[in-house]
Amino acid sequence: MSLYPSPRWRIAVVLLRHAMPAQRADVFAYLQRLLTAFQPEMPPWRRRLKARLAALRWTDSDLFPAEPDQGPWLTTLEEKLWDQGDVRLFQAPLHDDAAMGRVVDEVAAWRADETLLLPADPFYTPPRNGHAMDAWRRLTAAAGFRKANRGLCCHPTDPLMLRALVRRIAPVLETASLQGRAQLLMVLPWGLETAEGDPALWQADRLARELSPLLGLQPGRVTLCQLALPGLPLSSTSLPGLRGALEHLSGLDTPVLVLPFTPLPAGLQGWAEKAGVRHLHLVGPGDPALEMAWQTHLVRQARAGHEGICAGFGARQCPGEHSLCPYRSPAVFAPPAAGLQLAAMRERA
């Protein structure tokens, strides 16, 4: 039985995408948008120049495979959320306000009663998920679309995500262990820990600590690294880039499992061979049922009553020194989704 009184209540769930460049022609525009989010204080002409110079350093191996069609998966996810009301899923790229503005227009044309923004990865950093949350609020206000707006800032230790990740990794780890003492390499997006107080790396380390015992791995067998973008410096000085991490692990003469939280460059296999990694195993998508359960769980938790959801769904978990967390004080309870829906129905009546 549905917890909500009418299926007419329309919920627009917006899935953020990394939207990495798949063609050389896309690189300059992508880098320019990225620098606008990460260095807004820089004069526009300098951002354009920096993006142009950085784009010249990209090769075909630095590009990313085209994202697969998510249409059937989105349709199934909408069906799994039938108990929430009339749910429709939309996709919006990170750092592309023009494309996000078009999604806002689509959501408004659909006449959604409520919107929910889901992050592109489990970690919060202001110029990534934070920028998207701010852009969504700004663009919806500019469009005159003033409906209930909810969002997840992060979910680095969500229990269903952990379960899905373990089910993804375990069979690959079993195969790799036949070739030696495997190492797990977690690849984080570019742009984490760009300022003091950024909680993203603390969150990633927390996730690694949670995963290690679940997989039967010693902490030293889980390594964090960050995606590097040619022409731009590494966003964090405390983590190696992907190529540097591969070179380091090659010296251990051990199989390497790559667990990505960001799209991976097309040249990854070639980089690994050049670095001397003899056995590279990529952890891909897992059990569709578990992945679906995880995503529907996030939507339901986000609608459970909190306006801002932290790692523990309302329980403040990031240490106090990570002051850039958008919910650094205890989460403020918003009116429950069911209450908002009842109020809207009374107005319609």
Q: How are the strands of the biggest sheet laid out side by side?
A: 2-1-3-4-9
Low-confidence stretches: 1-5, 329-349
What is the annotated CATH architecture of the largest domain?
3-Layer(aba) Sandwich
Average pLDDT, rounded to a whole number, is: 84
Characterize the overall form: globular
The arrangement of helices and strands along the chain is EHHHEHEHEHEHEHEHEHEH
User: Domains counted in the coordinates: how many?
Assistant: 2
Number of helices: 11
Beta-strand percentage?
Answer: 5-15%
Please tell me about this protein's structure.
By secondary structure, the protein is an alpha/beta fold. It has 2 domains: 10-156 and 288-348, Rossmann fold, CATH 3.40.50.1400; 159-282, Rossmann fold (3-Layer(aba) Sandwich), CATH 3.40.50.1400. Helices cover 42% and strands 13% of the residues. It is built from 11 helices and 9 strands. It has helices at residues 24-38, 44-55, 71-80, 97-110, 126-142, 159-177, 200-215, 242-250, 268-275, 288-302, 337-348; strands spanning 10-17, 86-93, 114-118, 148-152, 183-188, 222-226, 256-260, 280-282, 308-309. α6 crosses α7. The longest helix has 19 residues, at 159-177. It is globular and about 60 Å long. It starts with 9 loop residues before the first strand and ends with a helix. The model is unreliable at 1-5 and 329-349 (pLDDT under 50).
